[in-house]
Specification:
Layout: H1 11-23, E1 31-35, H2 36-42, H3 46-60, E2 67-73, E3 87-91, H4 102-112, E4 118-119, E5 128-129, H5 132-159, E6 166-170, H6 180-192, E7 199-201, H7 218-238, E8 246-249, H8 259-268, E9 273-275, H9 278-292, H10 294-309, H11 311-315, H12 332-336, H13 340-347, H14 358-365, H15 368-374, H16 376-384, H17 386-406
Parallel strand pairs: 1-2, 2-3, 3-6, 6-7, 7-8, 8-9
Antiparallel strand pairs: 4-5
Helix pairs in contact: 1-3, 1-17, 4-5, 5-6, 6-7, 7-8, 8-17, 9-10, 9-13, 9-17
């Protein structure tokens, strides 16, 4: 369970949710994840994330495994993470679609083409294409990305003990989804390059917008996800990849309509899942501040007004994973008229609540930069109201996410 935390103050509340689930038989491993971009915006460092995780574990007496994730790393930004992280999300999305030498493409086709042009896997509705046309298209899309994963992995393992780290490969931040057939060859090539990937984050069909529910064809997602699980079963058995290999859902927080489908299928195939829930924690801080009243509620109103004023700047880095209709955004003057209870209801992800506004929620999801610029003023405020914020964080992770996903 990816327990990302923009400001590094909610580790204990998140771990409390995981420990309560563990007491009821749900086996979860917390992974504190934070990306280079998030560290840059909030002024934190990987050392801070490690400190947050270790402190929560020590204070609550957690005896299970836990990890600190260098989230969405590349060769250009990995160095600061090396002393502190034991989980590495290698993001190779930017390398997708970049060309490789023609001889490399031809060698790939010659090695992986099958006489009948297809590969049959038990449990797959359709065969995996393995003819020249498909393989050439695959090579054009993914060979460079696989090479980039190899370069990054080799760099990592020249600096850290490979037996003490978890490797994730991320390809989700692209426009075109990877099909189950694409995933088959991605995993095959990672295995051939001796990269012991334990979680893989493909781009699924539909939209995984930040902080709100899935948008897309549920039946299509269910079919695709199940076929991906079949591919992973084969990859573990035939490619020599780790038994812990699992699918990773990035921007996985709040995808409530998907959780029953995912939960049923991972139980059916007896497989794990890695769900990243980073930004949703920051929203629970805002909800807690709104409920606190007084200066805390005023701070939430200030952040919203700034978010409206700087909307283009704040949303630009997240353009592929948000979908805001500005006609549904209240003006700052209207927002200022609301009391804390109403603001909390507008922000809290309860789709059936008449006050819930997914457009406001998405905007505030990406507005943590405004809070970061408040610096100690913001940190002091959330510290002062921890007694209100922590229950929001715990309830959100346990009741809205863990229970919906892992409880049948």
């Amino acid at each position: 369970m990816g327990t990302g935390d923009r400001f590094g103050r909610q580790g204990k509340a998140q771990l409390q949710a995981i420990m309560e689930a563990a007491s009821e038989g749900v086996e979860l491993t917390p992974v504190w994840n934070k990306s280079h971009r998030e560290h840059t915006i909030t002024g934190s460092s990987p050392a801070d994330t490690r400190e947050e995780a270790d402190a929560a574990v020590k204070e609550l007496g957690w005896t299970g495994d836990y990890f600190v994730d260098a989230d969405h790393i590349h060769l250009a930004n990995v160095e600061p993470f090396l002393p502190y992280c034991d989980f590495y999300t290698m993001d190779v999305a930017e390398a997708i679609g970049k060309p490789v030498p023609r001889e490399e493409t031809e060698a790939f086709i010659a090695e992986h083409a099958t006489p009948g042009g297809v590969i049959h896997l038990p449990g797959m509705d359709s065969p995996i294409p393995a003819g020249e046309e498909y393989l050439r298209r695959f090579a054009r899309q993914y060979l460079h990305a696989i090479n980039e994963a190899e370069r990054l992995y080799n760099h990592l393992t020249s600096r850290v003990d490979p037996s003490r780290i978890v490797i994730e490969v991320s390809m989700d931040e692209v426009d075109i989804p990877q099909s189950p057939a694409d995933l088959y060859f991605i995993l095959k090539l990672l295995a051939e390059k001796n990269i012991p990937v334990q979680t893989v984050a493909p781009r699924f069909s539909g939209r995984f917008n930040k902080g709100v529910d899935y948008v897309g064809d549920l039946h299509k997602f269910e079919e695709e996800f199940e076929q991906d699980l079949v591919v992973l079963s084969h990859a573990r058995a035939s490619f020599g990849l780790p038994e812990t290999l699992k699918l990773s859902i990035h921007s996985g927080s709040d995808k409530f309509s998907l959780y029953p489908l995912i939960g049923r299928l991972i139980r059916k195939y007896d497989q794990g899942i890695h769900l990243k829930t980073a930004g949703t924690t920051w929203l629970e801080e805002l909800i807690g501040l709104a409920l606190a009243g007084g200066a805390a509620t005023d701070m939430v109103k200030h952040i919203y007004a700034e978010a409206i004023r700087r909307m283009n700047e704040l949303t630009a880095p997240y353009a592929e994973v948000i979908d805001i209709d500005v006609s549904f955004l209240p003006s700052p003057s209207e927002f200022n008229q609301w009391d804390g209870e109403h603001i909390a209801s507008v922000l809290r992800h309860e789709p059936g609540h008449p006050a819930f506004n997914p457009h406001v929620r998405q905007l505030m999801h990406v507005a943590y930069k405004v809070a970061a610029e408040l610096g100690e003023e913001y940190l002091k405020m959330i510290g002062q109201h921890e007694g209100i914020i922590a229950p929001q964080v715990r309830e959100n992770l346990l009741e809205r996410h863990i229970r919906r996903l892992f409880y049948s």
